Amino acid sequence: MREMTKGANVGLADLCDDAGSVIASLSWSSATGDGDADVSVLLLDGHGKVRSDSDFFYYNNPAAADGSVQLLGKTPTEGGSEDRISLDLTAVPADVERIVVAASRYGGARFGELDDLRMTVADRTGDVLLGFSIADAGVESAFIFGELYRRGTEWKYRAIGQGYETGLAGLATDFGIDVDDEGENEGPDDGMNASEDAAAGRAVEPPAAQAVPAPAEAAQPPVAQEPAPVPRQPVREGASPVSGAGGGTETGSTESGARSTDPAAAPPKRARGPRTAKKKVTLPAVVKKSLAENDAWNAARLFPAPTLKSDKEREVRATSVLLSVMAQVPEFGRRLTAVFGAPAGRMETFTEVSLPHGDTPKRPDGVIRVERAGKLWTALVETKTNGNLLRSEQVQNYMDIAARRGYETVITLSNDVALEGSPLVDVKTDGRRKHKVALRHLSWAEVAHQAHMLIRHEGVGNATHAWLLQELLHYLQHENSGCHGFQNMGPSWVPVRNGIDTETLSQGDARAVEVVESWERLIRQVCLRLGGELGRKTLPVQRAQRGTTPQSRRAALADRLCEEGRLTAGLRVEDSPGVITIVADLRTGKLRTSVEIPAPEGAYPLTSAKRLMRQLADAPADLHVETLLDGRSGPRGTLERLRPEPGDMLPADGSRITGFRLSLFKGMGLSRGNAESGFIRSVDDAVDRFHAHVIAHLPAADRRTALRSQDGAQAAPGPAVAADAPVPA
After folding, report:
1. Do 386 and 311 form a contact (C-beta atoms < 8 A)?
2. What is the DSSP letter of 717?
3. CA distances from 482 to 200, 448, 460, 652, 674 (A)
4. Of 548, 615, 62, nearest to 339 (Cα)?
5. Are 336 and 342 in contact (CB under 8 A)?
6. Which residues does 76 contact at the CB level (< 8 Å), separation at least 6?
7. pLDDT at residue 727, rounded to an integer
8. How large is the C-alpha radius of gyration of the chain?
9. pLDDT of 359 over the 80 cut
10. Are strands 632-638 and 624-629 parallel, antiparallel or unpaired?
11. Which of 468, 442, 321, 437 is nearest to 384 (CA)?
């Protein structure tokens, strides 16, 4: 790996034989584990300006139609998160000379509050080619981490590290994106009613439509179409959306390395043009009434599952169902394969293909081939369902076959969830081979999450595609499919639980580490499921000291489990007022879900208490409310007791109130599986109940979200916050 310094550049061809497709990653961490930022990518012409609004990629415009850019989303890391971007350099239009990779913070947050700011660029196999760390971040709320630029037929990388105190507004202005300041202080709809929104080409979202998934059993092919989100500038520093692009001078170009802090330096604004967008389809929020005479009638399904009996049959059926839908729904197939380095092109999929390997041919469960510009990208797929584990020998055979035949990737697909530093299978690679093969893992939970995001929140190309994805989801959720995601806490769960109960479990016990890993897999799956239902980024919060490895962090957590008998995790849901904490106390058999919310600045203590009671008017009576003081806990009680007398929440000695902790308790399942009495099911139910009945009634985090409300992806602060609709418990 080439370590870069600020201002240095290097040709990608000098670092890799095949640099046509790369993965750029931006990462950061924080002491609390919940620091966050949003990535963005800009395509610039020879004048250093975007050609149009469509050259600006961010959370509401995550992918280019030609596949050259695709934001792959966040993945948790030790103490923070990493945002990955797929860049197919062979697909970048000829008049684009630079690709700028940036990130921005919101709500007054600054990059100086984050640690370990870093950008890496990896090849299609995942091998990191170069890295660039930023150590001088301070008051900046937007940062350009680096850029890829053309030199003749070659692509090069330049480490930039340029910050903007004016936030994303200043950064966008430098590259020819106009920022419209009108409506900065307007209401949730920016002064436009629903009919005006529709005329402007923006999505009009009914209250709570985005967050309530329809029952899979009653879903029908959708017929309604909604306008797609229109790419607009997501300015969070008090500025309003983009109104145009292109033209202008090169003031503020990243070539100069100067910091842009003067809003007056922005080029003159151009007239607002008409906005149009290709319509996309999402499933109706309210399912039409069934025409069946009674509930005993089963709807006809494209992918029936009740007849599946053996594990082999489940694997064959699941592979065929998934690969066929990937080939027929381009948005879905591209989303699953882009992270593996696949180009955007014509996709074909195959099952049970016989490939020569020594004396006995091997049959991978599936093959994915993508063709672009006469070149083929190929991945072999090995599938497991139910609790079946991947076998190292089998995967090793496919890695060897892929290397000899020039295939790019081997994809393993199972109910297990991959963890950093804990590989699911051990394989050996022959370093003498010039051709490298990537080994990547995909969980069935991730497959369901991506399908859910497309048909419930982001939309697909037409009604048939939405229906196909819904049929896929129904199949994956069927009890006979074997594709339910992580469902077993492992063989160490019962011995560890019994050891804690009898106080015979000692620190350093390897079984405790296995339980901690299973707990981490479960929490990641909870984040996938909840994020898919809400349509918002949901990530686990992992607090770790700088320099710790995943293995050492898990070992420390295992020692704490042996000593305290508790498993603890945090979930960060985008725009929620705080981190949701989950504590599983194996001694008492109780699950505690909680959130800490700060007290309003400048408010009288009694006013804060009364306001909290009003916000929790519909919360469960058994909700525990605890007053937080400077460095200690204050009065506490159930909501049922505190509602009549909010003053009981105030400390008798007049200490300053810093916030409140809200908690719900639930009995913990004992078995290691996902049955009704299982531990995994109890964690799912606890998180669902807490979010639906507590978090959904609290005000969202203080963020400027005018753009998201206009695009139908996120409600802005106002009387009704649709994005906070409850999740079915």
Report:
1. yes
2. S
3. 45, 13, 26, 56, 12
4. 62
5. no
6. 82, 524, 539, 540, 542
7. 33
8. 26
9. yes
10. antiparallel
11. 442
User: Which residues, including other chains, have CB under 8 Å from residue 3's CB and lie 6 or more apart?
Assistant: 130, 131, 132
Are 330 and 295 within 8 A, CB to CB? no
Give just the sign of the alpha carbon dihedral 520, 521, 526, 528.
positive
Report the SS3 class of residue 552.
Answer: helix
For residues 42 and 50, the answer to whether their CB atoms sit within 8 Å is: yes
Cα dihedral 210, 215, 221, 223 sign? negative
- The three-class DSSP label of residue 438 is strand
Residue entry with tokens 């499919």: 481
Residue type, 639: L
Residue 205: its pLDDT value, please? 37
- Centroid of chain to Cα 637: 35
Helix pair angle (510-534, 493-501), 10° resolution: 110
* Cα 526 off chain centre by: 12
Round to whole Å and give the CA distance between 600 and 618. 21
Residue with tokens 């994809």: 411
The two tokens of residue 26 are 């931006």
Q: What is the DSSP string of 264-321?
A: GGSPPPPPPPP----EEB---SSPPPP--SSTTPPPP-SS--TT--SHHHHHHHHHHH
d(CA 259, CA 238): 19
Whose CA is closest to 79, among 596, 578, 583, 553?
Answer: 553
| Reported confidence tier of residue 427, pLDDT bands at 50, 70, 90 | confident
The answer to whether residues 456 and 283 touch, using CB atoms and an 8 Å cutoff, is yes
User: CA-CA distance, 252 to 615, in Å (whole number)?
Assistant: 45
473 close to 502: Cβ distance less than 8 angstroms = no
CB 343 within 8 A of CB 336: no
Contacts for 121 with CB less than 8 Å, ≥ 6 apart: 12, 22, 23, 24, 25, 128, 129, 130, 131, 146, 148, 157
Beta bridge partners of 570: 541, 581
Task: For 665-707, write each residue's pLDDT tens digit.
Answer: 999 987 776 666 689 999 999 999 999 999 988 887 643 332 2
**pLDDT tens-digit profile of 550-561?**
888 899 999 999
pLDDT in tens, 157-198: 999 999 998 888 888 888 988 765 443 333 333 333 333 333
Contact in structure between 87 and 149 (CB atoms under 8 Å): no
Burial of 564 (0-12, 13-18, 19+ CB in 10 A): middle
The total number of residues written for the chain in this structure: 729
* CA-based nearest residue to 49, from 165, 172, 181: 172
- In the numeric block, the tokens 């077993």 are attached to 488
pLDDT at 142: 92
